[in-house]
């Protein structure tokens, strides 16, 4: 039964010994370590589960079998030749034995002295013969058991060959013993015999030792005895190992010779064929974003990032795998790797969310028009709207400027009209743009005595961009200086031509004070709305726009919205940008609580989790979960947009150089207002004040009263707090006084702009200009050790002051412009020298002075900005 060690099988199978040990233990085979022996059944299990497929090794095994068979055939042929020689040498062996016996008799007849001399040699020979005959005694005792017929023919052949070698060595040893005459030769032969025996023992499993053994041409025993002796020899080795008990079996015995991989029974593991990667010449198309890292580009091209870095390095570009590159740079790199880059189409998630299908015409119903009142500041927009509503709003507005967007509904002849009052000041451009987008008709208010102003032109541009109908209301016709025709003339330059001039724009002269022309204006609004066929579907989820939003102290976030489609109910889930919630209550423009809001109806809603931005689109959703997910999408997109803007604006090299040079100073501001629209308007106005030397930085903007956290932030960041229509709470006021935080409150935006401009002027670097104080002429030069060249000069006009600057000219060219190092009169230092006197001048680091050079003296004076 063949046994093999686990590590030998693992090495042959090119696998780990630990994997074999684990698999054998799991399947009922008891093994302890990689050095354990396993039987045939365990070997078969290992080969079944770990050996490679037969198809891969079939050809290799067939070649090995053919090699072994050819080698065995050749060796058997050589053994037969050797056996013939052994038969011929039998007679010589018998003759040698008879000669040995006759010599023994002669030695017995020798003298005692000669016997003593020969004792040492006899002992050596006897010990050698005893060692050589020890195994023969064992074989003789077991000779009757040697005739076992169970061995197969292959084992018999191998045993015959091995036994032949042993007999050859043994007989050769005897033959040589008879010829030896010295103890040294006995010892040498004894060592050779032992080495031969070891070689035979190590060659148990066959292999290349046939050639080594057959190389000795010595007599041997006959073939039959060889088979028996080999069996006895095997038993003798087993007995010896059992007595020593050093190794449990033959396989545990250490071998001094490396095991031949071609030996019989060895497991040959075919080496895996490593396929070289095929170079792909095919051109691939990849999609890339606008910006990416080298690692992302390598992943897209399915190339190692190191190879991309290496190729760029060979082109002279030092990059890292985390370095960001643009699409153009990535496109060039991709071409080097046979890849065509295409720009990834940016899918706007918010646009996809807000995208709507076209409404079915059968579901649409008539809705009231939404009218936006626009125009220049103080042209009477709020007064006109007040006259229409028959209420008094103008007196409440500070400085006559409308600070908030108001939304009101008016009934005219049984029909509703929704008015939006937008501010006229240029600071509220963004609010006016939002107002224009949410309206159907724009009323452009122009004062008859003032004409077209810059904000009037701006309002016209917004209305045209929003593609809304424009009705011109010429206000203040009751004033003495009113000139209606001049207004028509000025507006015609902006493609607003009156109907009586052959155009299509409706012009209505009105007076908000006397209420003249108001009825005609309302009729024209209804007529224009009828022509426009304004319709909406009320039986769907509500959708609209936020007019205004603020944080109310008692009610929380409050948003003024205009429903454009569908109907909004109390309890509906709603999402407005990053804000979401359920509608807890709705209040109309007259302060009454309502349960629903139909298209073109403005209402205030409560129940949001935060203050939304003015101008955002609101949507009613099926449930709160959907609203929350849409809000999270808004937040995520806003974060990504902010990061992209920050990356595009921030240039590390430029920032460092500007800071080191001290070219940029920052004025930090915190803006608080009563409504969100005002916060944005104030921020935009103040940011416009930034210039190349001082940058306005608004670190925080919010809705509500100035609180403790605002003051703490201002103290930490050295900021000024701007309050617009809000007051600080008592705690914030105390902290501001203690921390010496500059807290400024305003009701009119003009005052805020003026104060910030003054603060910026204080931060500007002073401007100096040159002031000439005198002229001098060089009459003589002197050279002094340790001082340099001294210019003896005569003051022509003005005076020369110590510490001033000097400009030296020669033949009309300036040869020096710098500081005056020293001013002397005779040998004394003086503070100044007046006109008509002589003096000595020493210039800072300048000695190339000559006679008749002209010297201009000046000082730098600060100029107020």
Explain what you see:
- The structure is a single chain.
- Strand 24, helix 22 and strand 25 (about 695-705) form a beta-alpha-beta unit.
- The chain has a 6-stranded mixed β-sheet, sandwiched between helices.
- It has about 850 residues and is α+β, with helices and mostly antiparallel strands.
- The longest helix has about 35 residues, at about 55-90.
- Helix 7 (about 155-180) runs antiparallel to helix 8.
- It has 7 domains: about 5-50, no CATH class; about 80-250, no CATH class; about 285-345, no CATH class; about 370-535, Rossmann fold; about 545-640, Translation factors (Elongation Factor Tu (Ef-tu), domain 3, Beta Barrel), CATH 2.40.30; about 650-765, Rossmann fold; about 765-865, Translation factors (Elongation Factor Tu (Ef-tu), domain 3).
- InterPro entries: EF-G-like_DII, IF2_II, IF2_N, P-loop_NTPase, Small_GTP-bd, T_Tr_GTP-bd_dom, TF_IF2_bacterial-like, TIF_IF2.
- Belongs to the TRAFAC class translation factor GTPase superfamily. Classic translation factor GTPase family. IF-2 subfamily.
- One of its GO terms (molecular function) is translation initiation factor activity.
- It is found in: Cytoplasm.
- Keywords: Cytoplasm, GTP-binding, Initiation factor, Nucleotide-binding, Protein biosynthesis.
């Amino acid at each position: 039964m063949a046994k093999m060690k686990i590590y030998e099988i693992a090495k042959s199978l090119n696998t780990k010994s630990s994997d074999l040990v684990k698999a054998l233990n799991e399947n009922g085979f008891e093994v302890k370590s990689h050095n354990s022996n396993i039987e045939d059944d365990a070997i078969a299990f290992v080969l079944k589960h770990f050996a490679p497929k037969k198809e891969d090794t079939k050809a290799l095994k067939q070649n090995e079998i053919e090699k072994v068979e050819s080698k065995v055939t050749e060796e058997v042929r050589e053994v037969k030749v050797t056996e013939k020689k052994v038969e011929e040498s039998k007679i010589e062996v018998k003759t040698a034995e008879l000669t040995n016996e006759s010599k023994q008799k002669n030695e017995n007849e020798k003298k005692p002295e000669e016997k003593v001399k020969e004792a040492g040699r006899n002992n050596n020979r006897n010990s050698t013969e005893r060692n050589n005959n020890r195994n023969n005694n064992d074989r003789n005792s077991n000779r009757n058991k040697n005739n076992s017929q169970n061995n197969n023919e292959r084992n018999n052949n191998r045993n015959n060959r091995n036994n032949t070698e042993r007999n050859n060595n043994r007989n050769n040893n005897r033959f040589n013993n008879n010829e030896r005459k010295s103890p040294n030769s006995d010892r040498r032969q004894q060592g050779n015999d032992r080495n031969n025996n070891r070689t035979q023992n190590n060659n148990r499993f066959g292999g290349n030792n046939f050639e080594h053994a057959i190389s000795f041409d010595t007599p041997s025993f006959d073939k039959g005895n060889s088979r028996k002796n080999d069996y006895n020899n095997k038993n003798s080795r087993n007995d010896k190992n059992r007595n020593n008990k050093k190794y449990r079996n033959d396989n545990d015995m250490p071998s001094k010779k490396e095991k031949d991989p071609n030996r019989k029974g060895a497991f040959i593991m075919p080496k895996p064929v490593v396929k070289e990667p095929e170079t792909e010449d095919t051109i691939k198309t990849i999609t890339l974003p606008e910006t990416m890292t080298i690692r992302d580009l390598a992943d897209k091209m399915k190339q190692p990032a190191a190879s991309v870095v290496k190729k760029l390095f060979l082109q002279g570009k030092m990059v890292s795998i985390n370095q960001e590159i643009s699409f153009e740079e990535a496109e060039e790199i991709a071409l080097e790797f046979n890849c065509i880059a295409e720009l990834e189409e940016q899918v706007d998630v918010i646009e996809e969310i807000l995208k709507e299908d076209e409404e079915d015409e059968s579901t649409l119903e008539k809705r009231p028009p939404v009218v936006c009142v626009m125009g220049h500041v103080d042209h009477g927009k709020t007064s006109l709207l007040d006259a229409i509503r028959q209420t008094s709003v103008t007196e409440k507005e500070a400085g006559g400027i409308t600070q908030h967007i108001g939304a009101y509904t008016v009934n005219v002849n049984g029909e509703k009209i929704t008015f939006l009052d937008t501010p006229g000041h240029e600071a509220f451009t963004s609010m006016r743009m939002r107002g224009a987008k949410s309206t159907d008709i724009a009323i452009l208010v122009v004062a008859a005595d003032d004409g077209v102003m810059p904000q009037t032109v701006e309002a016209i541009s917004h209305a045209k961009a929003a593609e809304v109908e424009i009705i011109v209301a010429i206000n203040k016709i009751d004033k003495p200086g009113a000139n209606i025709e001049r207004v028509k003339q000025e507006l015609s330059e902006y493609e607003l031509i009156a109907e009586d001039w052959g155009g299509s724009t409706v012009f209505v002269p009105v007076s908000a004070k006397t209420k003249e022309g108001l009825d005609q204006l309302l009729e024209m609004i209804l007529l224009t709305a009828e022509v426009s066929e304004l319709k909406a579907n009320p039986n769907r989820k509500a959708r609209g726009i936020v007019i205004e939003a603020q944080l109310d102290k008692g009610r929380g976030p409050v948003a003024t919205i205009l429903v454009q489609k569908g109907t909004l109910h109390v309890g509906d889930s709603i999402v407005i940008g990053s804000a979401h919630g359920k509608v807890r209550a709705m209040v109309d423009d007259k302060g009454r609580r309502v349960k629903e809001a139909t298209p073109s109806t403005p209402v205030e809603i409560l129940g949001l989790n935060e203050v939304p931005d003015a101008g955002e689109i609101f949507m009613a959703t099926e449930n709160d979960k959907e609203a929350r997910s849409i809000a999270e999408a808004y937040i995520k997109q806003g974060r990504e947009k902010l990061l992209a803007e920050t990356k595009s604006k921030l240039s590390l090299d430029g920032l460092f150089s500007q800071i080191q040079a001290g070219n940029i100073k920052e004025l930090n501001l915190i803006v608080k207002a009563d409504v969100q629209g005002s916060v944005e308007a104030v921020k935009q106005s103040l940011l416009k004040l930034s210039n190349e030397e001082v940058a306005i930085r608004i670190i925080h903007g919010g809705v509500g009263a100035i609180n403790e956290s605002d003051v703490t932030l201002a103290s930490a960041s050295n900021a000024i707090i701007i309050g617009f229509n809000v007051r600080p709470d008592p705690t914030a006021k105390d902290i501001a006084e203690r921390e010496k935080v500059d807290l400024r409150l305003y009701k009119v935006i003009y005052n805020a702009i003026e104060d910030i401009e003054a603060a910026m002027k204080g931060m500007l670097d002073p401007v100096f200009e040159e002031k000439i104080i005198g002229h001098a002429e060089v009459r003589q030069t002197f050279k002094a050790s340790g001082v340099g060249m001294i210019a003896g000069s005569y003051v022509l006009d003005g005076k020369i002051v110590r510490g001033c600057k000097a400009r030296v000219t020669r033949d009309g060219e300036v040869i020096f412009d710098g500081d005056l190092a020293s001013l002397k009169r005779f040998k004394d230092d003086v503070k100044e020298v007046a006109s008509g006197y002589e003096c000595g001048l020493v210039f800072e680091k300048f000695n190339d002075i000559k006679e008749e050079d002209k010297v201009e003296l000046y000082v730098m004076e600060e100029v107020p900005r």
